[in-house]
Amino acid sequence: HHARPSEIVAPPYSKPLDLLSKVKGIEIVSLTRPDECCGFGGTFSVFEPAVSAKMGYDKVTDQARAGAAYVVSADSS
After folding, report:
1. Angstrom distance (rounded) from CA 28 to CA 74
2. Model pTM?
3. CA distances, 6 to each of 1, 34, 40, 75 (Å)
């Protein structure tokens, strides 16, 4: 019995990256912490607003440091 590749063992966010890599003229930049949460977790952001805001600032700082002009995500939040 051989394990099949899955989204869990594949590189994180591989499906959106695969689609974006097909866009002509796009340059994809890598974040220092792609695994780090943006801080918006529904009620988490309401009950822990200071922590949520700090996490958001950290995420935006990482995106700016990478030189991202746009942020693309499959996460609706």
Report:
1. 15
2. 0.70
3. 15, 19, 27, 19
Residue 34: pLDDT above 90?
no
pLDDT-derived band at 54 (thresholds 50, 70, 90) equals very high
3-class DSSP assignment, residue 68: coil
Distance CA 24, CA 22 (A): 6
Torsion of CA 67, 52, 16, 9, to 10 degrees: 110
- CA distance linking residue 31 with residue 44, whole number of Å: 24
**Where do we find the tokens 């609706």?**
76
